[in-house]
Amino acid sequence: MIWQQTNGLFLQRFDQLGERSWREDLSYKLIFSPAGKGRYQTKFGDMSIEEGAFLLMNPTAPHKQLHAFQEKFLVEVHPFFIQEAAAELSIHAPVEFAEVSYKHPLFLQWLSFVRGYLTDHQDQSSDLLLDHALTQLAVLMVEYGAGSHQVDLPVSRYSDPIRQLMAALKEGYTTAWTLDDMAVAAQMNKYQLAHWFKRETGLAPYSWLQLYRLIRSQPDLLYTTESILPLALKHGFSSVSSYHALFKKMYGKTPTQLRRSYQHP
Question: In terms of pTM, does the model score above 0.85?
Answer without folding.
Answer: yes
